[in-house]
Amino acid sequence: MPMIPNKRRWAPIGYVVCGLTKLQMREERGQGIASRRRDATVEENLSHFEKMTKGTQEGVRWCLRAKMSVDNPNKAMRDPVIYRCNLDPHHRVG
């Protein structure tokens, strides 16, 4: 997991935001509206991120998103997911 230290460095300067539920994010991205979690405090985002890295039940519900744009014509670029907790074994390495 070499990317984890980078997320801790990005969070305090507002480049990332923690998002909740796949369905909710899909609807918000499709409509071009900002997530209600987009303006969460740095402390809240870091707290959720710590839960994600530990793989807690609460942590697997969250994902880390790049804070880019909510109105980009390319819907894939509207605050894309850059990290999530996945407890399933990897299909190649187990």
Structure description:
With 94 residues, this protein is an alpha+beta fold. The chain has one domain: Glutamyl-tRNA Synthetase, Domain 3 (Glutamyl-tRNA Synthetase, domain 3), CATH 3.90.800. 32% of the residues lie in helices and 15% in strands. The chain has helices at residues 4-10, 22-31, 42-54, and strands spanning 16-20, 62-66, 81-84. Strands 1-2-3 form a three-stranded antiparallel beta sheet, with helices on both faces. The longest helix has 13 residues, at 42-54. The model has no long low-confidence stretch (mean pLDDT 77).
Question: What is the secondary structure topology, with strand pairs?
Answer:
Elements: H1 4-10, E1 16-20, H2 22-31, H3 42-54, E2 62-66, E3 81-84
Radius of gyration: 13 Å
Task: Supply the number of structural domains.
Answer: 1
CATH topology: Glutamyl-tRNA Synthetase, domain 3
User: How many strands in all?
Assistant: 3
Low-confidence segments, ≥5 residues, pLDDT <50?
none
Note the main sheet.
3 strands, antiparallel
The assigned CATH architecture is Alpha-Beta Complex
Number of helices: 3
Portion in helices: 25-40%
Largest sheet strand order: 1-2-3
Helix/strand order, N-terminal first: HEHHEE
Output mean pLDDT.
Answer: 77
Coarse morphology: globular
CATH class (first level) name:
Alpha Beta
Q: Determine the CATH superfamily.
A: Glutamyl-tRNA Synthetase, Domain 3
Structural class determined from secondary elements: alpha+beta
- Our measurement of the CA-to-CA distance between the termini, rounded to an integer number of angstroms, reads 15 Å
Question: What amount of the residues lies in strands?
Answer: 5-15%
